[in-house]
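Morning!

This is the sequence you dropped in the shared folder:
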Amino acid sequence: MRLRTRLVPSRASGTTRAMLAAILGPVMVGAALTVGSPAEAAITTQVFAATNDSYVNAAAPTTNYDTSSRLAVAAGPARISYVSFAVTGLTAPVVHARLVMHTSSASFAGSLTGGTIERTGANWVETTLTYANRPSPIGSPLSRFGIVKPDRWYQADVTAAVTGNMVVSFAISSTDPDGAYYDARESAENWPRLAVDTGVPPSPDNILLAAGDIASCTTDRDEETARILDSQPGTVATIGDSVYESGTTAEFANCYQPTWGRHKARTRPAVGNHEYLTANAAPYFAYFGAAAGPAGLGYYSYDLPGSSDWHIVVLNSNCAKVGGCQAGSAQERWLRADLAAHPSRCTLAYWHHPLFSSGERQAPNVLPLFRALYDAGAEIVLNGHAHQYERFAPQSPDRTADPARGIREFVVGTGGRSLQSNFGTVVPNSEVRNGTTYGVLRLTLYTGGYDWRFLPVTGQTFTDGGSGTCH
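The structure's back. Tokens below.
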């Protein structure tokens, strides 16, 4: 799939590529980027600036607020923001559309409820809009902004409202008296925009979305990474420590379920060490059920439905909990038997503790598992545990660079719990490192090869991408 982005001219001519990359996360502005198999069709993203925006106030029903530099969203009294876009120049079907807003830098701009987004009639202009003449909603709510903080970008799915070239209008409202404030289109850089993807959507059957070290009730970063999943098709791979602090039943229900849990039906998990802080990781196995493999073991395998070339193996790196990971252990014997029974050209495996890491969290006891995969010609290993992103060149189990037969390891402990910005001694074959960006790794697995792309949360700019071939 070839991804292209075009910025539609707007009144804010000073917009930079770096800023738009920060706003749109995985979208690479102003460049053509190959992120899928050559056979896939192009996806083009066009970014439209708001043509009208303002807010209304129930306490002053005939007052127009067009001169305000902020858009208010709150209750008690009701304040509703309106944003309109002229979508033009689309030549292919709409695949996805996102409303992208920036919160004001004022200290009071954040809210626990960023607002509900609805489509409205578009027959209004910002210079005459008031509460008394405001347009009515059309249909059901489209999406919601959750917790928002000052001076950050947020985006929400509004695909259902954008059907092609048209003028489309949105209202953002809230039932929370402690409202949110967004920058209006008069802002030099932080004006509202609509990002519209057109083309042929990628198949969800050959995409894997992966991260570990994810959910906690003490942070909203897991909600930000969950929003990436909201707009991405594919199978979700959790690489251990799905919920903090102890993987209890209550934590799965109250901390994981509201964020990544909304994608539970397409999730294939791996178990981490925090899940075992509750006896036998029992709530983990109960929550994920059959998707986690045989209860109590934590290792299993599966095939992606759209990739007959790829076999996926999930392992349990909490070695002491399953009789060890050493050569001849039950898990290592199972792994070798599974690989022999699935002689796919391409193999990917994931588990929690990394064999290789510059984040000083290496786990040498998983070496026999890595060696079994290397012996079978596996391509990729995904790990978490280190709350960082790190990519390695293909290498052998003894840390020797091996571009012909080596395994490429990714450490993706960026799911939301916290980050470790500092790396220790950089270990051999480490190619890319980042400890300041939350996000999800997207792998597109196609016949004979794969592409990877790190998708950062909205407002963060780091990304990493490339392609590889199967052995």
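Headline: The radius of gyration is 23 Å.

More detail when I'm at my desk.
O.
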